[in-house]
Amino acid sequence: MKQTEQQFAELMPISGTVDTFFGGFELDHSFPTGETADQVYDLIDHQRAAQLYLWGLPLVGMTRWFTAYQESYESFDYNTLVSVRTFNERRGILTANETTDYLFGFSDTREAAAILEIPGGASLNDLTSGRPGATMVGMIVNMWQESPSDVGIFGPNRGGGGKHVIVGPNTPPEAVPEPGDGVLVHRIESDRVMYVLRAIGGPDEVEELNSKLRVYNYGQDPSIHIIDGEDKFTAQYQPRGLAFWEMLHRGINDEVVQERDRHFMYWLRTLGIEKGKPFEPTERQRRILEDGAKVGEVMAKTLVYNERLDGVLRQNNWRFILGGDWGDGIKHTQRMRDYDIFDPRARYTYEAVTTSPAMTIPRPGTAQAYLGKFEDEDMGRLHGAERYEIRIEGPVPAALFWSVVIYDADTRCVIDNRHGPAGGKATVGSRTPGVRENDDGSYYVVLGPDPAPAGWGANYVQTLPVRGWFPYLRAYGAEASFFDGTYRYPTVNKVDDFSDIVGQ
Questions:
Q1: What domains appear along the chain, each with residue ranges and CATH number?
Q2: What is this structure's pTM?
């Protein structure tokens, strides 16, 4: 569109008020007044703080996780795996599942390549046919929550085991092993790497499989050090207030700066956060950072709970939490052809933590599928004081298992119902002992603040009256019908009482 001189002049006064969405700004002969300049600089820095909150979510989440383990476990260090099995150990992890036990750990690649050896395990056919055995499901992920690879049964070796070599941006070339059979080399864009591992199978088989894991650096003897979670709660979600920025400062000082982030590093510098320097914000910077974190978190909540991207919501308003052919989630690289996916990255890394190719690419039979829903069928928000039923069509097309997990809308962690009569449980699924199946092959998950209806304890999750919640539907080994619209996703309905359900 061609703009005339008159049109140009009419859009900005020489002297007077510039009316904007943020209020009026005063100009004097085209010069911002002193008051306007102060106002604008506050606006610039506040806007930057809110956007930096969204930008920093993945790094802050990972840094806090590492820090929490350092503070909680005396023997925790690089190349150490923490075994997470209890409800209390999971309740600080963003959208953790309750079906599989976890092993979490970190390695540092600055001195030498990190090596993760995955033992061979049972095949998918073995597990689905009931034969004894165990297999590994897991991922490698860098500190910005970018994943070069899955490991285990959904990884490149399809459960056959293998040696994964992780090379960081500062790994010395001489500290990288030579390629060989069964060796997979992954290059990452952070100095540290995290492992998320889940062994699936019988308890004895899982224990044996875990004992064969090896985590070490090149030049060290292959070894494994697994420590018990000790039923400790460790908060791994992003902190609030100034603590968020303190954690971000720690993260950027522990990691390399990527080219894509240089502008953001400048923004941080104007707010008192600079690589190689202590975090000592002025009173003005502190005020802006604290308020910017509040606005940033409300933005993150809005991205999660009020979807605006076209084509993201599926049947019954369920959303694929991670990507797929439609590009509505977060790709495992976070990178599209012409841009990085800023909003979906912020959305996902506020709502959840860690990602991998198997979680983002809908490969039938070898995919981990995650669906989320944030309102009932009448578009009402999900409140803990109300009663609900989630109806799940059966059979669920998941080769390994399916589950519905209930999360707290504020913390994004398993709903903390430990102190209720039906508490310490947030999951109903195919591996829930005693789960009740309806005559037509469907399932009900029943939810409410009261004790479970008689005979429905296995299918019940107790909610908290003053808190909102949302469900995830997981399908491990999701089959084609889970993705192509053939399988009908669950419905979530508010009910006055459970009489219609418990009568079945």
A1: 33-72+238-305 (1.10.3360.10), 74-228 (2.60.40.1610), 315-502 (2.60.120.600)
A2: 0.95
